[in-house]
Write a structure and sequence with these properties.
The protein is an alpha+beta fold. It is built from two helices and five strands. A hairpin with a 5-residue loop joins strand 2 and strand 3. The protein starts with 6 loop residues before the first strand and ends with a strand.
Length: about 90
Amino acid sequence: MTVLPDLDTSWRVRMEIGSRSVATIAHIDAEGFDDVLLWQASEAVPLPDEWFELVDRAQHMLLAGPAADSSDAALQAACDAGELLAVVGRVSFL
């Protein structure tokens, strides 16, 4: 948990500008179509303004998992067990 993975432009985090929320996380193929839809929001949950502004500037996001929950302890436990996967994906806005 001390080294960031390389950017993988095949992973996309799609953000809805109007609701300032994450819409989907998907892996795209060479032609730009989704080949894996990892996650899709069932409802819009707005991100805090500071967080959304950071994503808007950075245009990339660290995705890590799976973990029992989003706590540091759960992420560390998944890492210690060799189960934690991570990728830096590109953000696109809808």
